[in-house]
């Protein structure tokens, strides 16, 4: 009974996690939370025309922020606005994970607080280059002849409508400011229709600077009320456009000073939320923290900035997005060092690494991970010129579309580059439905064409139990012969024919000790063949790599006393470091180990699901003077760029 109860609790926990990531059960999220490792603060700086522009700052922890570009504007207001200035920038990551939306007040305060009728809409796919549009409410929609101002627009994705909802405050004549909304068109260049009322407080007094966040199916609208006692309040609803809001009468600001421009964001990999607001008469910001979005505590002593922002918003970003920003606008002088592990963003596992003599680039061929119970059905590859910046080259083999004999469980590929009749060819071995196939291409990025049948479809004679998975292809530099290794619970090997898609020799089993589980990988160095393999189960935090040596690619294997190649470091949150491949830098005795681990920091909390929510890392691999392998140290820092 206890076992059933625990399993149910674990199932519900995993289900809740997937739902929280806004993705269908069984499919990895567009941007896994574990990949959000930094923050972008978008703001303006003051009431002079030259200060009414978009500025950027970045942080790695959500508490310490550094201005980019020496706190100069990153977008020219005169190019994007009708007034020559913009204020109140709000930034949003789109539902696809890779498109960004920014909306701004089109206004210069020097022309008066009732001088603007428009907002600016911006769209980007890289946070650097933006396409802009101006929406003038007064000229676009009849009935707004007495419109005085349009302030502080923001955007939220309305999943129910499948559209982006832009909300903002407007004042008509002598009426109070109210919060309106309209849906953006598909191109995010205009509004689909005239603005409608979103929220009016029961007091009937003015309200501005709305900011909406969703938590557990409830939308929380933080806003500034302009009653006799102005301040930040919150109202909630389960239906964005229903007009049915429950108002909380409590003031949320933790200061007696005047405040405006509240904005809330969730800290990465945390249950904490930060509500911040502009203490505008004092020229500073205040940050407060909460777990329930109702009770907030000031954390002034924990916050540091090397700039003075006005009314902005903060967006959690990935490491690659952070790198893109600093590549464009420079690295702030005191910014913390950026980690390079994991090397791939997203959930990936079982990495096979290749240096291509044809393209002079490095490639990683992983399992596409994050699917429930290892149910992925396609393979991707990633390319790099320096081993730390990786480009997603897309799907290179899709089982349902490209393979006739299997359509499920796309696991653990490997690849070899060989010259055939003077031209480079790429032979890609992969697991599908617990069988092993091979596909061929003229390029390391494909397209790959399947051979039409499984190369390994049955268990080798003498093998007891296990699965026909985890291929590794190795070409002996001494003889030029190529071999395929595979097996789970056993290690099998067979020499390949010159066509690389059939076997030349009979299948042989190589004896290994009881630590062998799967993931064979073979390298050659200074006369010695090194056989590596993974011990334990990929779902186990103790999954690790061991090795043995041989004088032949066919064994027998001698196992050193201390033969761990790499293992986790629990104190650093590093677990399940296994299923590796190894890269030798061409013409150098310089080596690197590529492996997967539980996703950091979330994987260890997932139970067995940690075994299919993995990430790919690279660290240094070194040898002792006697040829034994030094135990590699897995790191968050990773390696430095290879030139």
UniProtKB/TrEMBL annotation:
It holds the Pfam family Glyco_hydro_43. Residues 1-27 form the signal peptide. It comes from the Bacteria. InterPro entries: Glyco_hydro_43, Glyco_hydro_beta-prop_sf, Glycosyl_Hydrlase_43_Enz. Keywords: Carbohydrate metabolism, Glycosidase, Hydrolase, Polysaccharide degradation, Signal, Xylan degradation. Belongs to the glycosyl hydrolase 43 family. This is Glycosyl hydrolases family 43. It comes from Flavobacterium limi.
């Amino acid at each position: 009974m206890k076992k059933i109860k625990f399993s149910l609790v674990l199932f519900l926990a995993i289900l809740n996690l997937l739902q929280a990531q806004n993705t269908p059960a069984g499919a990895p999220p567009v941007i896994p939370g574990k990949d959000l490792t930094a923050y972008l603060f978008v703001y303006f700086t003051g009431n002079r025309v030259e200060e009414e522009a978009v500025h950027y700052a970045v942080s790695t922890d959500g508490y310490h922020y550094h201005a980019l570009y020496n706190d100069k504007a990153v977008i020219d207001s005169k190019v994007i606005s009708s007034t020559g200035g913009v204020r109140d920038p709000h930034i949003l990551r789109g539902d696809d994970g890779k498109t960004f939306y920014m909306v701004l007040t089109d206004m210069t305060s020097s022309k008066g607080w009732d001088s603007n009728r428009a907002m600016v809409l911006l769209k980007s796919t890289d946070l650097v280059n933006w396409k802009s549009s101006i929406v003038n409410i007064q000229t676009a929609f009849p009935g707004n002849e007495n419109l005085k101002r349009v302030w502080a627009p923001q955007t939220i994705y309305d999943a129910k409508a499948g559209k982006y909802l832009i909300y903002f405050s407007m004042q008509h004549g002598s009426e109070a400011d109210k919060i309106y909304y309209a849906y953006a068109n598909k191109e995010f260049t205009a509004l689909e229709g005239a603005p409608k009322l979103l929220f009016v407080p029961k007091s009937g007094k003015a309200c501005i600077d709305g900011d909406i966040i969703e938590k557990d199916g409830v939308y929380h609208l933080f806003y500034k009320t302009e009653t006799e006692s102005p301040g930040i309040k919150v109202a909630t609803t389960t239906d964005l456009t229903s007009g049915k809001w429950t108002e909380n009468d409590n003031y949320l600001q933790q200061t007696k000073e005047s405040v405006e421009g509240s904005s809330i964001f969730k800290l990465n990999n945390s249950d904490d939320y930060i509500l911040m607001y502009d203490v505008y008469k004092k020229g500073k910001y205040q940050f407060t923290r909460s777990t329930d979005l109702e009770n907030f505590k000031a954390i002034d002593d924990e916050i540091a900035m090397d700039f003075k922002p006005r009314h902005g918003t903060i967006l959690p970003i990935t490491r690659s997005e952070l790198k893109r920003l600093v590549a464009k606008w420079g690295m702030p002088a005191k910014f913390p060092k950026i980690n390079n592990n994991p090397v791939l963003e997203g959930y990936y596992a079982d990495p096979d690494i290749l240096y291509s003599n044809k393209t002079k680039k490095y490639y990683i061929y992983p399992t596409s991970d994050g699917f429930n119970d290892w149910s992925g059905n396609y393979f991707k590859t990633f390319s790099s010129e320096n081993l730390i910046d990786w480009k997603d080259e897309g799907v290179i083999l899709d089982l349902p579309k490209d393979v006739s004999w299997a359509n499920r469980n796309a696991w653990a590929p490997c690849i070899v580059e060989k010259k055939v009749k003077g031209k480079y060819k790429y032979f890609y071995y992969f697991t599908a439905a617990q069988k092993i196939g091979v596909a061929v291409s003229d390029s390391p990025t494909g397209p790959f064409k399947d051979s039409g049948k499984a190369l390994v479809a049955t268990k080798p004679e003498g093998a007891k139990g296990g699965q026909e998975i985890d291929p590794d292809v190795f070409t002996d530099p001494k003889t030029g012969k190529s071999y395929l290794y595979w097996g789970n619970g056993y290690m099998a090997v067979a020499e390949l024919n010159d066509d690389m898609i059939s076997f030349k020799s009979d299948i042989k089993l190589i004896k290994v000790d009881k630590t062998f589980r799967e993931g064979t990988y073979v390298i050659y160095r200074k006369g010695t063949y090194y056989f590596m393999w993974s011990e334990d189960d990929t779902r186990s935090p103790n999954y690790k790599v061991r090795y043995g040596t041989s004088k032949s690619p066919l064994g027998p294997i001698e196992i050193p006393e201390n033969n761990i190649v790499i293992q986790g470091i629990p104190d650093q949150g590093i677990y399940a470091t296994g299923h590796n491949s190894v890269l030798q830098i061409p013409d150098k005795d310089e080596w690197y180990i590529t492996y997967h681990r539980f996703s950091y920091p979330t994987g260890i909390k997932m139970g067995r699901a940690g075994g299919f929510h993995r990430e790919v890392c690279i660290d240094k691999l070194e040898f002792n003077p006697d040829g034994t392998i030094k135990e590699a140290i897995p790191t968050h820092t990773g390696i430095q760029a290879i030139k």
